Known about the structure:
This protein has 358 residues and is of the alpha/beta class. The protein is 27% helix and 22% strand. It has helices at 6-14, 34-43, 46-51, 85-99, 120-128, 191-199, 264-268, 283-287, 313-323, 341-356; strands at residues 68-72, 106-111, 134-139, 145-146, 159-163, 165-166, 181-185, 206-215, 218-221, 227-234, 237-240, 247-252, 276-279, 304-309, 330-335. The strands form three sheets. The chain has an eleven-stranded parallel sheet with strand order 1-2-3-5-7-8-10-12-13-14-15. The protein has a two-stranded parallel ribbon with strand order 4-6. A two-stranded parallel sheet has the order 9-11. Helix 9 (313-323) links the parallel strand 14 (304-309) and strand 15. Helix 9 packs parallel to helix 10 (341-356).
Amino acid sequence: MKGIDNLQQSYQCCMMPPKRKKHGCESLPTNLPENVINAILMCLPLRDAVRTSILSKKWRYKWCRLPQLTLDDKIWKTTNNLLSPSIKFTNIMYNILTLHSGPITKFTLSMSELKKYPKIDSLIYLLSRNGIEHLVVQFSEWNLYKLPSSFFTCSQLRHLTLQNCLICPPPAFKGFDMLISLELCHVSVSSISLESLISSSPYLENLVLKISDTLSHIQIKAPLLKSFGFTGCTKFISLKNVPHLTKLSLMYGESYEDSEKCDLDKFLRSFPVLEHLHLEYGSSQFLVADVPKRLSSALDHLKHLYVSVDELDDISCALCLIRSAPYLQTLEVKVSMDESDNEVDEVSAFWISVLLIP
């Protein structure tokens, strides 16, 4: 069997009768309860879980009914590198598609070394028909993976993470009405599709957007949203009907100067129970249209504040937030400016102002 990677060998071993030793067989863990065996298998890498089939008849094909599976680059990290990752991946996909039975509630597919994605459409179809609730799909930046139409029929999804994927919902797509957590990293998606995906997820609580492309606008409507993090470039961002938002993190890309400015006071008024506020590079510039000395409504729930000061104009924004947060517990200010005499004086004055805030 020279030239075949270890995982493929293990799948073939599953087809053959287990080899028993003449002595010491009684030491094998063959009499464990079903739930204990499943717990053990779910703690193992998939390659090792498959290999347990040779332990005894009771263990044979147990992995085929596991509700949680993970496929990542480690699965073919063997001493045998004669086969390309694409061929190995095809072999693995074939075995999963033909041997696995029962529901798959959690599936992680993380492949940074793949440039081609064979049989993944068939895998997504299998997941959509087997009650998938927690799905992580991460690919390399070399080639975006276009999600097939079957992906948009995963009606029981509760947690979804996508990286380096192309998202083009079909016209009949009505959203994921059970989705609680959504993380999109370096995906390609239109503003309209993104807004539709978010607004059609009525139970969404956690949202993370890391967008490489510049979007014209982002409008978020999520009545149960508790945490929102945004990294990327957009000309306009709006959060409406988010009364339960407690954690907000913003980081704008290089083109933040082209963004439309919004009123800081009006923007923060939409988050009455905000506890964590993280404003990274470019964020305060987006918020600075007209900065008052103090907000019209105090941020009574704000406990943790992080502000990145990249320009002198950021100082007034930081001071406004500090003055408006009477119950602030932790404050972190990152200063990244040229060490000119004028700016050093301004920063020194800033810290004096902070210390003198009543």
